[in-house]
Amino acid sequence: MTARHYTHVGRARARECERPRDRRIGLSFLVVLLAMLVHATAAQAAPANDDWVNAQLVGASSATAGTTIGATTEAGEGGAAGSIPAIASVWYQWVAPATAEYEADMFGSGQDEMLAVYTGTSLATLTFAPGARSRDDDIYTTLDPQVVFDAVAGTTYYFQADAVDASNLGAFTFRVNRTFTNDTFASAWDLGTSSGRYLVTDNVSASKQAGEPAHGGNAGGASVWFKWTAPSSATVTFDTSAAITRSNTLLAAYTGAAVGSLTLVAGNDDVGGGTSSRIS
């Protein structure tokens, strides 16, 4: 609206007074238009890691800012979710520092995304990493994807981060972390104040520490710990989802500062006659 106003005034003054001023106003308008076009073009520039060959190297345990805005796909590129084609992908590479289970995720972005992990030496030879779990979109109803995989020390893994469609392009944080770093109370994973979130994990290599209570009234023997801070006073629910649980679980919530002096808030073993657990 401002640009049209000045152009109109310039023509009016040319009839009354001087044409040179009209040319100056017209030139200014042109420069403004060019600047706007250049800015719009720059905003759509593809990320540096748009192609597999330019996959961004991330650290052994990292959190890296990324975006799918301006990203494209390559000829022969498959979709991260398998059944959903690639839309606007970016790539990361990571070298496993140890032979262990790791997880990669794009939690907290607010967009609907896809994530997959591969091994291979070229885009054409990539195969889904052996042992990868949850290689799909909307991991168990959450918009943010997570993949858990069995890494081999020294192996290079490639991660394809993508959006499910053009309306879900945006910024995200890509993370790679070793699982089972939360085997003890002191090393509990901090979930912050988030809600409506699912985590894919297991307790295959977990243990039980001295002084740890019997969760859900059962002695158990292979626990992992999480820490959550309530953002407000309300009734909340935690569960080991029946849709994905492959074992008989226990679940309990506590308050306290040490594993030997915890106060039980709620505990459960086998909700609804099944093998999953739920507390509120």
Outline the structure in words.
The structure is a single chain. By secondary structure, the protein is α+β, with helices and mostly antiparallel strands. Helix content is 14%, strand content 26%. It has helices spanning 2-16, 19-43; strands spanning 56-57, 62-67, 90-95, 100-105, 113-119, 127-128, 146-151, 156-163, 171-178, 189-190, 226-227, 238-239, 250-255, 263-269, 278-279. The strands form five sheets. A five-stranded mixed beta sheet has the order 1-3-8-5-6, with no helix packed on it. A four-stranded antiparallel beta sheet has the order 2-9-4-7, with no helix packed on it. A hairpin with a 7-residue loop joins strand 13 and strand 14 (263-269). Helix 1 (2-16) runs antiparallel to helix 2 (19-43). It starts with a helix and ends with a strand.
